[in-house]
Structures are given as C-alpha cells and as structure tokens.
C-alpha cells in the first residue's frame, strides 16, 4: 500500500509542477517540439545547441535508480536528473532528484533563486521546513506518500527525524537550479526552529546554538 501511495504521489508531484508553471508554456520555440542538448558542443550564452541526431533513448534516463550510499561524512546522497546528466531535459524547465538522508541527518538550509520545488517522501520520516521573506517558519514531519512544496526562492531544509534512512523525490522548475547556502537566517525564524534541528544542521551543541541565537537575534 505504501509503495502504491508513493508512486501515485510521485506522479502527482510531477504533474502539479509541470502544469502549474506558466513559464513552461512559452519556454520552447513554437516551431520546435524539443531541443535535446548536445553536451559535446561548445555552449553559448543561451546554453547548449540542439543535438542533430535524436533517438528515443534521449528521452529516457535510468540514473535515478542508481544505488545511493549515505555512509559518508555528510550522511547525504543524491542522484540527479538535470541538464548535465539527462540532456533531454533541455528547454523543459525541470529537473528531478532522489535524495537519501541517513538517520538523524539534516540537509543544509539552502534556496534556489526563483525556483519552485515540489517533492514526495518515498521512505522514512522527514521534517521539512521553509522560511518566508519575513522569516515566518512553516514546517511539518512528512512520511511515505506525503507531498510537499517549497515556494520559489525560499530558504528550506530537510531533516531525517526517523530511525532509518529516509528518501525523497523532488522536482524543481529549473534544469540546473543553483543552490545558495543561507544558514544564519534560520535563527530569525518565527516560530523558532527547534534547537535539536539547528544542532544537526550546524553540527554543534546546544550551548553554541544558544550563543549564536543570542548574537543573531539581538
């Protein structure tokens, strides 16, 4: 049942992200159906040129199923389906990621300029939060089959609050979203982000967190 819900949620995440993004309707030249990037060519200011010889294989990608290993110092592993790994996404305005988090691990807070992110928890329990521009915090623990959305450009983070590895599938409205790490602003969140989350994000103790909170909020 959980597997079925996860698959349905993945499809919903894709559909909602694709069909609610007004920019996509004007993204392609009306005279072309697609533009598979030729990564062997020299890119220009507008990106990679279109591949001249296209086959069905250019529109399929199996890299998201590559085994992930969270046994590393960060405890985070990611499979990416973006322009550089899946050239068929060129001009489509989307990319997808499978993110694995070891138990107790937090994905560092970051933002994607002008980019919406939607996703679904495939396995585990994940605390997902984002801050508005006036530092209002919205957060919730999501489980298998639960979908979430991060509004464009807002600071967000994910933390595995379960006892086993957690996995998420995310879709973002950009082929190569840039990530900007913005940790200090987390101390300005209202309501305050719990200390145990900040301790995991900053990899420090409660005393240090209290000191940083005091300095950054006074």
TrEMBL record:
Subcellular location: Secreted, Extracellular space, Apoplast
Entry keyword Glycosyltransferase: no
Superkingdom: Eukaryota
Residues covered by the Cupin type-1 domain: 62-210
GO molecular function, one term: manganese ion binding
Coiled coil: none
Key words of the record: Apoplast, Disulfide bond, Glycoprotein, Manganese, Metal-binding, Secreted, Signal
Major site of localization recorded for this protein: secreted
Residues reported to bind Mn(2+): 110, 112, 117, 156
GO cellular component, one term: apoplast
Residues bound to oxalate: 107, 112, 117
Pfam assignment, any one: Cupin_1
Signal sequence segment: 1-25
Disulfide-linked positions: 35-50
InterPro entries to which the protein is assigned, alphabetical: Cupin_1, Germin, RmlC-like_jellyroll, RmlC_Cupin_sf
Family per record: Belongs to the germin family.
Protein name per UniProt: Germin-like protein
